[in-house]
Amino acid sequence: MKLHVLHRTHYAYRMPVRDSLNEIRLQPVETDHQKVESFTLKITPFTQLRHQLDFYHNHVHRFDILAPHNILEVEASSVVFTSQPVDPAEGILVPLASMGRCLEQAGCYDFLQPSTYVSLDADAVAIAAQVTDGCVDAWSAVLAVKHFIHDKFQYQPAVTNVHTKMSEALRLRQGVCQDFTHVMIGLCRALKIPARYVSGYLYNGPADKLKGAQASHAWLEVFIPGHDWIGVDPTNRLQTNERHVKIAVGRDYADVSPLRGTYRGTGERTLRVDVLVTRLDEGSSQSQSQSQSMAAAP
């Protein structure tokens, strides 16, 4: 698929603010199944951007606005080509009991530890063991956890927020894609299966009913020896495919938030986020798109 993603974040402050220091993770990454044709980033008020890769090789842009301003708008526009990953279901027979060896791999260590939003407490360990009872290989355990979350959790916006931790979502059995992803990451880590958080977008045509496709989306990747990292979307009970646009990876949401920063001034502000994902390779008469606007007043 050829997909265009437009992501616009707009802050309006009741009184002028200053000394705004920010970092952005909105640029798609290059993978075997995702090629980036173009990426542009526009900041209002105008400022200079600085680019670097972070510890997990995500694109990070930083900018400062020191002068007083009443609004801040960040607009990211991306065009990417995505392809369907090979279905890993066949031939994944890595014993679950052997997954503890992944701790010896530097690229897995961080994704087996507790993190800001993901805990490995006794409840998580007990639930993971119960859900995967009878599973002898790691991939079947991953599928069992995915099915458990999809079947037992209710997709319900507004009951959680971006700061909700895995333990709370596990108790509520409700939430959105970020919550479902944190829960599945925690349960996989409890089973010694390396799991990392992925931020991105999900394209959804008009005939489909995928959840989480109206805004930034979240899923996870699990590491299975001999098969590398495999994407899993627990919100929609599927493996990632050409509809998923990958932006960044991390231990949890704290590592990949699209925009974060600090400023001096009033705390009275409004936030509006608009996301539009459009398919470009079907011709203008058949082009499909989706959009959603969300407003919040922190």
Features:
alpha+beta; C8orf32 fold; 15 strands; eight-stranded antiparallel beta sheet; 2 domains; 5 helices; 40% strand; five-stranded antiparallel beta sheet; Immunoglobulin-like; 298 residues
Radius of gyration: 20 Å
The main sheet comes to: 8 strands, antiparallel
What count of helical segments does DSSP give? 5
Query: How much is the average pLDDT?
Result: 91
| Fraction of residues in H or I helices | 10-25%
Intertermini distance: 36 Å
Can you tell me the number of structural domains? 2
CATH topology of the largest domain: C8orf32 fold
Shape: globular
Strand content: 35-45%
Number of strands: 15
Element-level helix/strand string: EEEEEHHHEHEHEEEEEEEE
What would you say about this model in short?
The chain is of the alpha+beta class and 298 residues long.
Give an overview of the whole structure.
The strands form three sheets. Strands 1, 2, 3, 4, 5, 13, 14 and 15 form an eight-stranded antiparallel beta sheet that branches. This protein folds into two domains: 2-83 and 257-296, Immunoglobulin-like, CATH 2.60.40; 96-255, C8orf32 fold (Roll), CATH 3.10.620. The two termini are 36 Å apart. It has helices spanning 106-109, 122-131, 138-152, 166-172, 177-190; strands at residues 2-24, 34-44, 50-53, 59-65, 69-82, 154-155, 174-175, 195-202, 217-224, 228-233, 238-239, 244-250, 259-264, 269-279, 289-296. By secondary structure, it is an alpha+beta fold. A hairpin with a 4-residue loop joins strand 10 and strand 11.
